[in-house]
């Protein structure tokens, strides 16, 4: 039984008392506080490599390892240097069962490049639901705390963290280990970005995953420009609406959104789409050809898969580019390669998580760019619902039932 299970107040006291030697140790070891790494890059939106060349703030971290020692329920004696943290979290104990809000304790001393943050908000995403339902293709160890798109404040930094100070407002992606549906979370420095104090916690948890992925897909992979016509499927979803916003408002492309209901279609038009249609997979091509004067679209951004993807391919123009970004339908289409020939079109995959490991510089820069685009008022994330931590199961259900538009946010503090 943990301190906090005995008495929530005791857990907090234990945390304060046991933190003292650690803090003293930190002070005496000369841990230096650095200023917040606000992006210095002047963004032209010409090419991502231009952006990277101008930025002096890319955090380069090679071969980082991390652990996720979330739970320690039987604390007996602790070495003086360990901290005891007791905080509330939404915990999954059994696949496909509701999450339970409970106090958990951890006794983790931060590793060199780790940062402990107080989580204020966390985005609720499709992968949280898939993992909790055992549908993510990995065997998840229990207990498990979902949530990876966090926004909060830095509480403690590891010995070799260079770019953050205690108290900084940050947003982050914690795909290795999740654990963001909790009052506290430990994230590697390479997965955190500093944001201005003025950014709300709700917006902070709405930016990185969707806008980052959409920016990578549209800009870096498909090289979207103003003369493109972009078809976005699931256009009112988190990823889709970010793609609509970027394509229409940053790149000034002509956007056609497709989605499930008239209300969603209306939101997509409000976001800047030139046209938005309800899916009726069978006549999608006719409608798109009508809207594009028979030319078809030069870019497709798809996060649905299944029939919607197959039908959207019939709308692609000569030398078009089809971005495969996700599978909300949970149906992964098989595309015969012979299909690519008549229109000489390209199929392009995009995964933000993969960039983290394969091209960390680009991963970091995408985060910087998204923050800067928001600060300049060029993009405006849409949050359709905010649920308190206690209603985490309702939040996940809201997303699952396709009731959401844009982002769903869990408010933790
Ligand atoms: N590549 C990456 O790095 C990356 C990053 C983020 C997300 N993703 C993936 O992209 C997909 C969409 O993510 P998201 O954040 O946009 O999710 P979301 O906010 O839940 O939106 C998904 C939308 O897909 C539409 N949809 C169409 N058919 C569906 C079906 N059979 N079941 C459920 N939804 C269906 C729904 O809109 P309508 O009701 O309008 O049809 C729904 O609102 C997910 O598979 C996610 O894992 C990939």
Automatic annotation (TrEMBL):
InterPro entries: ADH-like_C, ADH-like_N, ER, GroES-like_sf, NAD(P)-bd_dom_sf, Zn-ADH-like_protein
SMART domains tied to this protein: PKS_ER
Transmembrane segments: none
Pfam families: ADH_N, ADH_zinc_N
Enoyl reductase (ER) domain: residues covered: 93-410
Protein name: Enoyl reductase (ER) domain-containing protein
Organism: Daphnia magna
